[in-house]
Amino acid sequence: MAKAKKLTLFGLIGITMAFFGTVRSVPTLAITGWTSIFYMLIAALVFALPIALMSAELSTGFPEEGGPQVWVRNALGEKWGFVTSWLLWVQMFFGMVMVSSTVGVLFGYVINKPALSSNNYFIFAVILISYWGVTLLNLKFDMVKIAGNWGAVIGVYIPFVILVVLGVIYMIKNGIQPNSYLGNFKPSDLIPNLKDLGSLAYLSGIIFIFAGVEISSVHANNIENPKRNYPVAVIASVILLVIFNIIAGLTVSNAVPRGHIELANITQPYLIFCENLGIPTIFVNIISLMILIGVLVQLSAWVLGPSKSMIKVAEEGNLPKFFQKRTEKGIPITFVMIQAIVISLVSFLYVVVPDVNSAFLIITITTTILYAIVYALIAISAIRLRYNMPDANRPFRLGSKGNGLMWFVSIVSMIGIVLTIGVSLIPPSILKPSQYTGYVIYQVTATVVMIGIALVIYKCKKPEWKKEDHQEDYLKQAN
């Protein structure tokens, strides 16, 4: 049998950047103005890079299918392995509501009804229609295979490049606008204003740009000379992402008048650029449609992906038989339907919180908190496995000998994780003071409930939950 072709260094850089290349997060970056440079560097240095490097060692040392839950299970036991897989599933409830909300905003511009983009009832309705629509389509067709990579090219890469190019041209033509988020620059604008703690909450939304950074580690075993090339690829990818996002964020900061940015509306800067540069507004409709296609393709990929991972966890005996049901096509129907129902309930936040901007940011931060807890478990596992399984073959290893470098990277990542959760609990400045208490209660409750449910389920697990032929299937796969 021919050996699988190894990834080149540049190939891995391209794949890694593809995971995080998105225009959706640009407004969250732009609202912080010049401080976005500081926030992006913090997100990259104490969050993205440490997690990516630890994940690379864990992925090459423990390459079994399952990723983070396998690493945590090997280090901390089955209970925390299950909690990890559970959190990676339930974070999608919040993340997909946030992604789906952009569908309504974009659709308003596609049909030339921009006022709908700030109508919370319209956004709520479109979330329900779009998510249930892609769910039902995925039950009938393989939408990821049908959409293919062209969805990402049309809906992510082309719009992102166009946004950066138009933003740079706009800045060259008009200079820095005094009424924008960049206006009246002072050196102190480059660092957060600690007197305005509410602005720190945006750091959580910016860190969300790198959520899922561990995913690229699955390719660490398939690259030429992983010991040298993987860290080079990760560092190069993060540097490029930081540069492109900063350029995009600053140019949008410069175009939108201070106090008027719409976090869920990526079409806003395109409209400003086109009006100023004399580009016909039909171009904005086309760009909105392209991004809309990309969002729907992303939703399709997430409908089945996490569910397929969770049903394996269920068949191992961690969840009742009810969760182990599949359709004739092997689709984990119970998980797919549960996530659609819960996402519908979470999306009701757009009705409870009338301001679309606030609801969008709140849900983004909830997703980031849940991801941060998973990353804390990964960081602890990386250290634990160095001592529990020191002789495991690690094609990529942090440090040629000893555990010093691993301890350093793990501590840096834990600092980043604690920082992320800390700023996430600070009420964002776009909220009203009367909403501050409710915001903190919501974030703490959502996090505790999501973790608590997993722990209760695990405590109640029974031997008869295990699928009868699961062990046999496992042995067949192993052989």
Q: What report would you give on this structure?
A:
The protein has 479 residues and is mostly helical. The protein is built from 18 helices and no strands. The protein has helices at 9-20, 26-30, 35-61, 68-76, 78-110, 120-140, 143-147, 150-174, 201-207, 226-255, 267-277, 282-318, 333-346, 349-352, 356-388, 404-424, 436-459, 470-478. Helix 6 runs antiparallel to helix 13 (333-346), helix 8 (150-174) crosses helix 12 and helix 9 crosses helix 15 (356-388).
Topology:
Layout: H1 9-20, H2 26-30, H3 35-61, H4 68-76, H5 78-110, H6 120-140, H7 143-147, H8 150-174, H9 201-207, H10 226-255, H11 267-277, H12 282-318, H13 333-346, H14 349-352, H15 356-388, H16 404-424, H17 436-459, H18 470-478
Helix pairs in contact: 1-10, 3-10, 3-15, 3-16, 4-5, 4-15, 5-6, 5-12, 5-13, 5-15, 5-17, 6-12, 6-13, 8-10, 8-11, 8-12, 9-15, 9-16, 11-12, 12-13, 15-16, 15-17
How many distinct beta strands?
A: 0
> Structural class of the secondary structure composition?
mainly alpha
Number of domains: 1
Low-confidence segments: 471-479
Radius of gyration: 22 Å
Keywords: Cell membrane, Membrane, Transmembrane, Transmembrane helix, Transport
Pfam families: AA_permease_2
Main location: membrane
Membrane topology: Multi-pass membrane protein
